[in-house]
Design goal:
heterotrimer, A alpha/beta, B mainly alpha, C mainly alpha, B: MetI-like fold, 76% helix, C: mainly alpha, MetI-like fold, 2 domains, three-stranded antiparallel sheet, transmembrane (chain C), Phosphate transport system permease protein PstA (chain C), Phosphate_PstA (chain C), MetI-like_sf (chain C)
């Protein structure tokens, strides 16, 4: 596991034209996902302007910024969830393991299995806990039999730290769980399809502090097994869970770097203003 | 004709009353010493007088028209011509009603010569009461109008009074729906009770032979066993029609909401709604003229026996087509009510669109869809013209869709469009069937609305 | 929580590129395409049914607006013994022509031209066509005129391509003389026993009178009830009861309203059978809930800020509603009303119950005259054995559908034109 304090600032990628001061890549080894000069348009309106960021396997990457800054929009580009919005248009290059995910031959169904997502509001399906977890493996054919499926469900729930709480009531409805449990169920659901990257869109904003702490602990547990990208507007949370932080403002990437640097010694004035609470 | 002249006269007098009332109030408003006291604008004073002039007279006329028929008959009976009338109540009644019809100009000639003798007394009595009512009504207009006009003074709260009357009118208007519901229920129950005094409810509800006769047969059988009708209704409305309407309606809704490009949806939705706007008599004619013969020929060609040109299948299929837009719009609403987070959650797992629809959206929308289907069934079983024109009259208990079956609504029409006596059990049976139909559709609706409501609440 | 990592075991990354996985993906996409195609099929089938229905009605019905005609030469001066045109002008010309024995004149002319059995070729109403032609142009009476007159029904059907062998043979013989003309009778006449003479005017007028009664009752009551329920009604059990009954009435089968009309309006109140008044009353009870429901939605859509603004300048609650809320909600209420009226216009079953299925040969003149309506007329004609009625039935359906589509189009236009987004 990478120690974030000693991480080198690997500057082996050329900076993008506009965010010249941002570090595109951070962390050891080859990046899991890279984005170059990404623009997103909603009809006429440009929501993301020329963003380039690398996401590393070993790190938790946090996207912060005031609401409406485009951080969630950018996150949704990484597994092409923006495809579900008819007017959204994405330009630029986004790769997963070197493959262009917007290339015509890229299969969006496989892509989303490899890049899982956890949403702002817990959204378990109105099915049993078991079926919620088994849904992904079933549609992707990841289990060859009932036993293997049971095993996947158990493993996923254990990884999400939910097994102990629900193992006796796997047939209860997923919607009957508490908010925090529902969100961990959604994380377990994402884990069950064995993704390489997990995107989390403000996963704790609908939860109380205790549930939030559990989710943060969970993120810490699974770091290194998946590349994790988390959008949050809670700066303390970004500081607690992430090793890399990207600060977005009005659709542009203002600054990207090691979390501790961003919070203690930001390069940009805007970042400093935001972090010290001048606006947001 | 006198009625409409009287009505016109009252309206004109009302307008005059309005004018006088307003003029008097305008004089308060302009005179210096009373101006500060004026509560309402002159307009309202005008309405105050006008309503006083019109409303009591109108109420009086309504009551008068309800009570005079009885009074007219009594007066006519006290005339010398009435002495020769037979004592037998039935012939007496028919003579009297015939005489009255002639006197009122609804009928030209009498079948019974005795009726002719009663025409004159009737005519005299009717015109006497009419004149009396007219004079009284006009007097009432004047009396009330003048009375209220004299009561006008600057501090009169005319607006408040007018508004109170308006409010009562509003309340009465909203009560009409309740009165209608009660009216339906009471009239159906009333006639059904008369029917069940002649035919046992058990025979009616559980009997399997439908062959209504005016008099009971040798073993006391009456031929009022409604089970074949219930079966026919369910077979056509709840089975065949739904087999057509549910898949087509549901898949149409899914395609329109989930797949279709915006402009396709914009055109297709109204086109589907036209299906719901086509009158049922047109569907009935279509079923009888085109669908039924085609299905019969088809059945004959594949060797099915008992194929009839009036078939359950023809009526059911056409009814299903009629119901498609209904099912489709209910399904549309239910699917739209599923939070988009569900859909996104499934898509983000890498599910395809159809997997998301089949495994997440439909199960989540199921209660709403089921509610919609129940409403559709309730509509299908109450549908009349298609089955009257295409399903036939033979009360068969068969599951062969190519044979003829009959339904509750068909039999209601058949029983009531003959020229029977109103009191015969055959006529009254229609009301008993109507009562069953009313209760069943009411229950289906209540259940469906409850299911849909519960479902909506679950996602709010 | 902390033992998660240890129990999870060794993870084998999924090999998305493996053949098995690729095959599976291909299968899933095939299922996706099938499902989508299924949806499209459902839509196309549904729309196809509609198109088929309309085509069948057009195919059968358009012929109903035309009639087959044979030319007939009438030597009026010889036949009438020199009647002068000026005698047959003015309002009572019709009766005078009758007195002149026009029917015999026409029959004699037919026999002269087509032989003794010639009258069997022509419609029984042929002489009326001659009469109308003279009324239009009395000068005809002073000359020898050739008029195109309608043929009898079987010949008409045969000429239009659907007749029996005998009629086909006659058509064959007369083929160079037979022609087609527009059937004005169909728009101007009422019901008749001869399909060549039937028309929809009587039924259409009955429909219009019935709709007038329905509108006059259902619209004010519906609007007032909607205003009361939405603006003033206290939330209590009685209001709930009213709401429940309105919602249920909207779903009660129409035939039940017919039973109500029969039991209450005819048997209890003694109103005349077959009258547009009773039909209108019955349909008003059916239409009123539709207007109330759409009216409530329209009233609900008026934002509270408007009410507050009016109350703020000192308007009474009644003034607020009648001066501000009602005018703003009116387009929505009208849309709902037109849709409700369109439904009432197409309604048949309840009117059968109250006797509006009578044979109406003269159009009704008032609300209490015996009348029938267009859908019932369609139903009655559909039962006729004579093949000539098939096209008349479909033609009447076309007229009814034109009315309904126009009403719906107006409703949609109103909705789009006046729909305000607050």
């Amino acid at each position: 596991m990478t120690d974030m304090q000693t991480a080198e600032m690997a500057d082996n990628n050329s900076p993008s034209t506009e965010s010249t001061l941002s570090e595109i890549s951070a962390g050891d080894g080859p990046p899991k996902m890279t984005t170059r000069n990404v623009n997103v348009f909603y009809g006429e309106k440009q929501a993301i302007k020329d963003v380039s960021i690398d996401v590393n396997m070993d790190n938790v990457t946090a996207f912060i910024g005031p609401s409406g800054c485009g951080k969630s929009t950018f996150l949704r580009c990484l597994n092409r969830m923006n495809d579900t919005i008819p007017i959204a248009k994405v330009t630029g290059d986004i790769t997963l393991e070197g493959e262009d995910i917007y290339a015509p031959q890229m299969d969006v169904v496989q892509l989303r299995a490899r890049v899982g997502m956890v949403f702002q509001k817990p959204n378990p399906f109105p099915k049993s806990i078991y079926d919620n977890i088994a849904y992904g493996p079933k549609i992707h054919g990841l289990a060859t039999g009932k036993e293997e499926l049971d095993q996947i469900v158990e493993n996923s729930l254990q990884r999400a730290g939910l097994w102990g709480e629900v193992k006796d009531r796997l047939q209860d409805s997923g919607t009957a769980l508490s908010g925090g449990q529902q969100q961990r169920l959604c994380i377990a659901r994402a884990i069950a399809v064995d993704p390489e990257v997990i995107l989390m869109d403000e996963p704790c904003s609908a939860l109380d502090p205790i549930a939030t702490a559990k989710i943060e602990e969970l993120i810490h547990e699974i770091r290194g097994k998946y590349a994790i990208v988390i959008v949050t507007h809670n700066m303390q949370q970004a500081a607690r869970v992430s090793q890399r932080t990207a600060f977005f403002h009005l659709g542009t990437l203002v600054e990207y770097g090691v979390t501790s640097d961003i919070f203690t010694n930001p390069v940009q004035d805007k970042t400093r203003d935001y972090i010290t609470g001048r606006y947001g | 004709m006198t009625g409409s002249i009287l009505f016109l006269l009252i309206v004109i007098l009302g307008a005059l009353a309005w004018f006088f009332g307003k003029a008097k109030a305008a004089s308060f408003a302009s005179s210096a010493d009373s101006r500060s006291l004026v509560h309402s604008r002159p307009n309202y004073h005008g309405w105050y007088v006008a309503l006083w002039a019109i409303v009591p007279a109108t109420v009086f006329l309504i009551v008068w028209n309800l009570v005079t028929p009885g009074l007219v008959t009594e007066t006519a009976l006290s005339s010398p011509a009435a002495q020769q009338l037979p004592q037998d109540a039935f012939t007496r009644g028919s003579i009297l009603s015939e005489a009255r019809a002639i006197a009122q100009g609804q009928q030209d000639q009498a079948f019974n010569p005795l009726s002719e003798t009663m025409v004159e007394p009737y005519r005299a009595a009717i015109s006497w009461y009419q004149t009396l009512g007219m004079v009284a009504a006009l007097l009432l207009v004047f009396a009330c109008g003048v009375f209220s006009w004299l009561r006008l003074k600057p501090e009169l709260r005319a607006r408040t009074k007018i508004e109170r009357v308006t409010m009562i009118t509003l309340l009465l208007a909203s009560l009409i729906a309740t009165i209608t519901t009660v009216g339906i229920f009471v009239s159906l129950i009333f006639e059904s009770v008369r029917f069940f005094s002649m035919v046992s409810p058990l025979d009616f509800l559980f009997g399997t032979e439908w062959n209504p006769k005016a008099v009971a047969g040798p073993r006391g059988e009456t031929g009022f066993g409604a089970i074949p009708l219930f079966w026919g209704t369910v077979f056509i409305g709840a089975i065949i029609a739904m087999i057509v309407a549910i898949p087509l309606g549901l898949m149409s809704a899914i395609y329109l909401t989930q797949y279709a490009p915006a402009n396709f949806r914009q055109w297709m939705k109204p086109i589907l709604e036209i299906l719901a706007g086509v009158p049922t008599v047109v569907y009935g004619y279509f079923a009888a003229l085109t669908v039924a013969p085609a299905l019969r020929d088809f059945a004959v060609s594949i060797g099915i026996s008992g194929a009839s040109s009036e078939s359950a299948l023809a009526a059911g299929v056409v009814m299903g087509i009629m119901i498609i837009p209904f099912v489709s719009s209910m399904a549309d609403d239910s699917i739209a009510a599923v939070p988009s987070a569900m859909r996104d959650g499934s898509l983000a797992m890498g599910a395809t669109k159809s997997e998301t629809i089949k495994k997440v959206l439909i199960p989540a929308a199921l209660p709403g869809v089921v509610g919609g289907v129940l409403l559709a069934v309730s509509r299908a079983i109450g549908e009349t013209m298609i089955v009257v024109m295409a399903a036939g009259l033979a009360a068969n208990m068969t599951a062969n869709p190519f044979s003829s079956v009959t339904t509750v609504t068909t039999q209601i029409v058949k029983l009531l469009t003959g020229d029977q006596e109103f009191d015969s059990p055959k006529t009254l049976a229609a009301f008993a069937l109507g009562l069953v139909l009313f209760i069943v559709t009411l229950l289906l609706n209540l259940i469906a609305l409850r299911v849909v409501k519960k479902y909506r609440e679950a996602y709010e | 929580m902390n033992n998660v990592a240890t129990t999870s075991g060794v993870r084998r990354p999924t090999d998305w590129q493996s053949d098995a996985m690729q095959k599976r993906i291909a299968k899933r996409y095939a299922a996706e395409r099938r499902f989508k195609a299924l949806g499209l099929t459902a839509i196309v089938l549904s729309a196809g049914f509609l198109a088929f229905l309309l085509l069948v009605m057009m195919g059968n019905g358009l012929r109903g607006f035309t009639q087959t005609e044979l030319p007939l030469e009438i030597d009026f001066p010889a036949m009438t013994g020199g009647a002068s045109a000026s005698q047959y002008e003015g309002p009572d010309a019709d009766a005078k022509l009758r007195a002149l024995g026009l029917q015999d004149i026409v029959n004699t002319s037919i026999e002269l031209q087509y032989g003794d059995e010639g009258t069997e070729l022509f419609s029984g109403g042929a002489w009326r066509a001659v009469s109308n032609a003279i009324l239009d142009d009395p000068a005809l009476l002073e000359q020898t005129a050739t008029l195109s007159l309608p043929v009898e029904s079987e010949l008409d059907v045969a000429y239009k391509g659907d007749g029996n062998p005998e009629a086909e043979r006659k058509v064959e013989e007369l083929s160079d003389q037979l022609g087609t003309g527009f059937n004005w009778n169909f728009l101007g006449n009422s019901d008749a026993t001869d399909p060549m003479q039937v028309g929809i005017w009587g039924a259409l007028k009955g429909s219009l009178i019935t709709m007038f009664v329905t509108l006059a009752l259902a619209f004010p009551i519906g609007v007032l009830a909607a205003l009361y329920l939405e603006e003033y009604a206290p939330k209590n059990r009685y209001t709930d009861m009213i709401e429940v009954s309105i919602n249920n009435l909207a779903a009660v089968p129409s035939i039940i309203f017919g039973l109500l009309g029969l039991a209450v309006f005819l048997n209890l109140f003694g109103l005349p059978r077959s009258a547009a008044l009773v039909g209108g009353l019955t349909l008003a009870l059916m239409t009123m809930p539709v207007i109330v429901i759409s009216g409530r939605n329209a009233v609900k859509a008026v934002p509270p800020s408007i009410r507050e603004a009016a109350l703020g300048v000192g308007a009474s609650p009644i003034q607020v509603v009648f001066h501000h809320v009602l005018p703003l909600a009116l387009p929505g209420i009208l849309t709902g009303t037109i849709i409700g009226m369109a439904r009432a216009l197409g309604e048949t079953a309840p009117l059968l119950m109250i006797g509006m299925r009578a044979f109406i040969a003269t159009p009704p003149d008032g609300v209490t005259d015996p009348a029938t309506v267009l859908p019932v007329q369609i139903f009655l004609w559909s039962d006729e054995v004579n093949r000539g009625f098939v096209e008349k039935t479909s033609a009447a359906i076309i007229v009814l559908l034109i009315f309904l589509l126009t009403m719906n189009a107006v409703a949609i236009y109103l909705r789009n034109r006046f729909e305000t987004r607050w």
